[in-house]
Every structure is written in C-alpha cells, then in structure tokens.
Prior knowledge:
- This protein is of the alpha/beta class.
- 46% of the residues lie in helices and 18% in strands.
- The chain has helices at 2-23, 42-55, 72-83, 100-107, 134-150, 155-160, 196-201, 212-218, 233-241, 244-262, 269-287, 293-311, 318-334, 343-371, 375-381; strands at residues 28-35, 60-67, 89-98, 110-113, 118-120, 170-173, 176-179, 193-195, 207-208, 225-228, 392-393, 405-408, 415-420, 423-429, 439-446, 449-454.
Amino acid sequence: MIKKNKHIIFIIIFYSLFVESLFSSDTIVYRVPIQGVIDLGLPTYIERIINEAESNQAEAIIFDIDTFGGRVDAATQIKDAILDSDVPTIAFINRRAISAGALISLSCEKIYMTGGATIGAATAVDMSGNKASEKVISYMREEMASTAENRNRNTDIAKCMVDEDLSFTYVIIDNDSIEVTDLEGRKEGKLITLTTEQALKYKMADGLAEDLDELLSLLELSGAEVKTFYENWSENLVRFLTNPVVASLLTTFGFLGILFELQSPGWGIPGTFGAVCLTLSLSASVIVKLATKSDLLIVFFGLSLLMVEAFLIPGFGIAGLAGIGVILWGLYMLLLPDVPVSQEIYDSAMTGLTIGLIGAIIAVILLFRMMTKTKFWIKLTSPGIESSEEGYNTSLGLENLIGETGVATSDLRPSGWVLVNNEKIFVVTEGEFVDKDQEIKILSVDGNRVVVRINN
Length: 456
C-alpha cells in the first residue's frame, strides 16, 4: 500500500511539473535603467541592449528613467536607436525625465509615470544656468517636436518644453480643441514641465504605474521574465576614455610620444607609447561618434606637417609650429560632437584639452628627470667624465687626430664615446644622431671639444 502511494505521489508531482512547463511563459521583457547624468557612454550601451532584445525576440524594452538630463548629442543618439527599434519600447518615468531625459522618453512608443513624477524642462543651458544659443535651442526644439510627432504626441507642448519664447492657448487632443489653463509653460517666458496628472491629461503619457510589477500588469505582461541590464566593463571603459580630461591626456601623450620618436632613429618606447595612447583616444571617439572624418583629417594633416619638418626640413621652424597648432585644433575638435551643443560642452572640451596639455608636459618633465638618474640613461648617454686611471683622456693634446677615423662605442645623441687609434674619447656630433658601432671621422678639436660626423 505504501509503495502504491509513493507511485501515486510521484505521478502527481510529475504531472504538475509537466502542466506547469506547458503553461509557463517564455515571454522576456528587458529592463534598462537610465539614471544619473546622460553622457556619451550611454548610446553604445542602449544600442547593444536593443540589438540583443531584437535578436532574442523580447516582448518589450522598458527604460527605467530617473534623470535630470545631460548631453544633447548623447540623448539624440539614444533617441535614434529607440525610434529604429523593432521591439516595442516603454519609458517608465520613475520620478523624473528632465531635459535630455524628456527627449529619450518621448522617443518611446509608450510612456508610464509614477505618481508625482515630472517630464520636461528640456531647454539647453550651461553650468551657470544661462540659456544656450539660438542655434542649439532651435536644434533641440525641433528634435523634441519631430520625436513627439513620430509618436503621435502634441508637438506644441514638446516645443514649449525647450523654448520659453513660444506660447499657445489651445491644443488638439483626440481631434478636440482643448483650452489650456493649467500649464504655466503655455505662456511666453515660461518652460513646460508636466506632472504625472498633466501628462496624462494632455496625452503626453499613457498611464500611471507605481512600480515595475504594476507596469507589467498594465502591459499584460505579468508573467514575463524580466531581465535587467547594466553597462559592461567595455562600455564603462569607453565612458572613462571619452571624459574630456582623460581624452586630452591620451591624445597629448600620443602626440608627444610620436614627436619624440621622430627626433630619434628607429622605433622605440616613446613611439609605441604614443601610438597606443592615440589609438585608445581615437577608438573611443569613433565608438561614441565624436570623431568625424574631418576631425581625423585635421589631426593627420598636423602629423604630416611634423613629419615634413622632421625628415625634409633641417631645424625646427614654421612647418613644425604649424603642425603642432593644427594637431591641437584637431584634438579640440575631436572632443566636440557633430551636432549643435551648448557653450558648456565647448568650455568642457577646452578645459579638458588645457588640463591634458599641462598634465602631459608636467609628466614628461618628471619622467625625463627620473630617467636621467637611472643606470640605463647613464649607459646610454655617458655624460660623466671618466678618470685617466681607467684609460680615458680629454681631448687636450688631440689636435693631431683631426681627419682620423674611428668607431662609436656608444650612441651619439649627439654626444658619446668613440674609439680612435685605440684611444677612447668623449665627442659630440654636428647635431646628427650616430648609432653605436658606426664609423666616424674627427672634424675638429677645440680645447676639450671634439667634433665628429659619420664617415661616408
């Protein structure tokens, strides 16, 4: 009897699991938090999630938004990605969607807000709160209007979230003309920021939900599996590399490294270090769509001028100075987006470039001082005076060696040691660099100064 009961229990459990598997939902919903400052690292993150949602045939993407805004260019890239999404998109305004956050919210197919939430105030300002130029305002105003129009929302309200010089009295809702009396932003000189109640009244939002579970219930997705996504290490790295100060340091170090390499024969540590820095900076700029073809051409043109100065023109003159100036201009342009932005972004780029230059110069000076104290540097340049007991001598009395040939026993950059008639002598070149073991010829002897050149 007991054995029979065990079989019955086993059958019941098996049947329950089988039935549950039949009716269990394989619906997947993606939740993407957009919180804090909107910067250039976010677009690639949003694009990755949207592509993955499309590949996995997700039922919807919910953007959990709580932001005071950020960069207009970043918000524009995010808006474009959302509008192009094949997966239904829902903006869940979990407290606030201000400025750039409002543009992102309007780009979604549906907008749901928590009680007491706000959306709007999307005019472009700098850090001091001053209004941006008309060019920037016009760009942002039309971006908001076209996005609202694409999602069948009121364009007048969207425009007045950006431009305080606009005003209106009536809006069209569901083909009815409604007089607006409860929005301060309808008046000239005021910006529109909607509360949850107002957003629902004027059809700028589609519903009220206090939490994610309630939102899923309203969307008839209560049984769906919710996957929450965050930025990965590579996206965080891109955000770090595109910081104006970091980007400026990388490009400046890269520029200095290559400049030093051009002044020495062969290819060594400075050139490799500079190439790595430039690659990191330019790659990050390309990923976040900061670097345009024209910006890259400016930088490469400046590098070309430096190469002309290094290889074709003796000394350092107009071409070299022009090359440095062009490169600095190109680096500045690499920190700016290809869309109209506020003065804050220009100031941030200039500050970043200035800090990067100063930091790079200080770092190079400190590095040079540290290197000159190392045994490697002493061995490389041999700046010291060796004693006569070790077989060394000064050039005094060596006038008879003029015209003699010898071999460099160290690199001459431009000074070092040579062996002439089995005698080791400290010499200096005319300015050129001579590699170790190259044959040299003594040109002149003036006191303790022995001048040599490569013997051709």
